[in-house]
Design a protein that fits this description.
The protein is α+β, with helices and mostly antiparallel strands. It is built from 14 helices and 16 strands. The longest helix has 20 residues. The mean pLDDT is 87.
Length: 396
C-alpha cells in the first residue's frame, strides 16, 4: 500500500518557503558582505567527508551529533557535517597552509542526529568566521567585535531589544580542575554537571574528593552574573595562577565590549563550557530576549589544526541563520517589486533591463494580473515607461 503521507519530512527537518528563504538569503548575503569588508575570505567546505578526517580529535559529543553512512565507492564511513568550524580549521591547516594570520568565513547547511534547538531543528544553516594564526587576545577581541557588528547588521534590536553577550573561559575550569585533586576517571562527569549547572550532581561526583581540594569546582557553579562576578572570582580563585590568568582575558573582553557597545549587556559565566569540547580558551555567545538558545556561539580552539599537521592558534564564531532570521528586521523585498505589463514593446524591454541592472525586481504581469507583491508598476507616459505606485489596472 502506498503511503498517503509521502510529503512528510523527518522529525526536525524542515523546508523554507519563499518568504522564509528570502529572509534567510538576504541575511546571509548581508552578513557575508560585512565579513568580506573585514578581510574574511569565503570558503565552501564539502557537505560530507570521511569521518576519520571530519571527526578526528574532536570528542564524543560532536561524533554523536554527526549522521553517518557507508560510502559505496570506498567502503569507508562518511559523515554529514554537524559543525563547519572543524572543516574550516582543516582548510586553514591543510588546504591553504598559509603563513601568518588567515581570516576565513563560510555559510552552509548542517545536519544533526538530534535537534539542538526548536528554531533550527536538526538542519541548521550555519554562518561563521574564523581567525587563524594569532594567539593574542587581540584576535579574540576582533572576532567578538565582528560578531556584534553582524548582529547590528542583522537589525535585531527592533524586535528583541539589546543583545546579551555571555562570556566564559575554559581555562578557568581547566586550572581549577587540575588543582582540585579530582581523578581523571571522574573528569567527564564533572564537565557534564558544570554544563548543566547542577550543584547536586556535582556534589555527587565530588563526594569522594577532599572537600578543600574540590571547593573551587563547587564555587564555579555560582560564579555567574554581571561584571561584578569577576571580583568575586578573583577572591574565590586567589590561590590559582592559571585561573587568574584566564580571568584577566575575560576582563579584557568585558572592558572592550562595555566601552565599544554600551547597549550590549554582558553576562559573565565561569562555569560555561559551551559548545563542543574542542574549545581551549575564551568562550562566548550572543543571546536575544525571547530566545531560549544563543543565536551565535564561539570561542578559542587552538588544538584542532594539530591533527591536520599544523597546530595553529584559532578563534571564531558561528550563527544559526534560521534562528537569526526570525529575529532580523532586514526586509528581503526592500527594493519594492515592480510590475511590468505583457508587451512586445522594445522600449519596455529596455526599461525592464535597466531596472534589473540597477537591482530592482521586475515581474511580468502574465495574463494581465500583477503579482500582489509588486508595489510599483511600469506605465507608458509621454512616450516613455515610468514607475508609479500600483493601483487597480495600473499594469494593464
Amino acid at each position: 500500500m502506498v503511503s498517503d503521507k509521502r510529503w512528510l519530512l523527518p522529525d526536525g527537518i524542515d523546508e523554507l518557503l519563499p518568504d522564509q528563504a528570502g529572509a534567510v538569503e538576504a541575511l546571509r548575503r548581508a552578513l557575508l558582505d560585512e565579513c568580506a569588508r573585514w578581510g574574511y575570505r569565503y570558503v565552501i567546505p564539502p557537505l560530507v567527508e570521511f569521518t576519520d578526517s571530519l571527526l578526528v580529535g574532536l570528542g564524543a559529543d560532536l561524533e554523536l551529533l554527526t549522521c553517518k553512512f557507508s560510502d559505496r565507492n570506498s567502503g569507508k564511513t562518511l559523515g554529514v557535517r554537524a559543525d563547519m568550524t572543524p572543516q574550516v580549521a582543516r582548510i586553514d591547516a591543510h588546504s591553504l597552509a598559509e603563513d601568518g594570520v588567515t581570516r576565513l568565513c563560510y555559510s552552509g547547511s548542517t545536519l544533526h542526529s538530534t535537534a539542538q534547538s526548536v528554531l533550527s531543528g536538526r538542519s541548521p544553516i550555519q554562518l561563521g568566521a574564523e581567525l587563524f594564526g594569532c594567539a593574542d587576545i587581540a584576535a579574540d577581541l576582533e572576532v567578538i567585535e565582528l560578531m556584534l557588528t553582524l548582529l547590528e547588521r542583522a537589525d535585531t534590536v527592533e524586535h528583541h531589544g539589546p543583545v546579551t553577550l555571555d562570556v566564559g573561559h575554559v581555562g578557568v575550569y581547566e586550572a581549577v580542575l587540575e588543582d582540585s585533586g579530582v581523578g581523571e576517571s571522574t573528569t567527564d562527569a564533572v564537565f557534564d554537571a558544570l554544563q548543566r549547572k547542577s550543584l547536586p550532581d556535582l556534589e555527587a561526583v565530588l563526594e569522594a574528593s577532599h572537600p578543600d581540594m574540590a571547593g573551587a569546582l563547587r564555587a564555579l557553579v555560582s560564579l555567574q552574573g554581571g561584571v561584578d562576578v569577576l571580583g568575586k572570582a578573583r577572591t574565590s580563585l586567589a590561590g590559582n595562577p592559571g585561573a587568574l590568568a584566564a580571568l584577566d582575558e575575560v576582563e579584557q573582553v568585558v572592558n572592550s565590549v562595555v566601552a565599544a557597545h554600551p547597549d550590549v549587556s554582558v553576562y559573565v559565566d565561569l562555569a560555561e563550557l559551551r559548545g563542543f569540547r574542542y574549545h581551549t580558551g575564551l568562550v562566548f555567545g550572543a543571546y536575544l530576549e525571547g530566545f531560549g538558545a544563543a543565536v551565535a556561539t564561539g570561542g578559542r580552539y587552538n588544538n584542532v589544526g594539530a591533527v591536520f599537521g599544523r597546530n595553529r592558534a584559532a578563534t571564531g564564531f558561528a550563527f544559526d541563520l534560521k534562528a537569526l532570521a526570525t529575529a532580523s528586521s532586514l526586509d528581503a523585498l526592500a527594493d519594492a517589486w515592480v510590475s511590468a505589463p505583457e508587451s512586445a514593446d522594445p522600449e519596455l524591454a529596455q526599461r525592464v533591463r535597466q531596472l534589473r541592472q540597477a537591482g530592482r525586481t521586475v515581474v511580468t504581469a502574465l495574463g494581465g494580473t500583477p503579482d500582489p507583491r509588486c508595489r510599483e508598476a511600469l506605465v507608458k507616459k509621454q512616450g516613455g515607461w515610468v514607475c508609479q505606485p500600483c493601483s487597480p489596472g495600473a499594469a494593464e
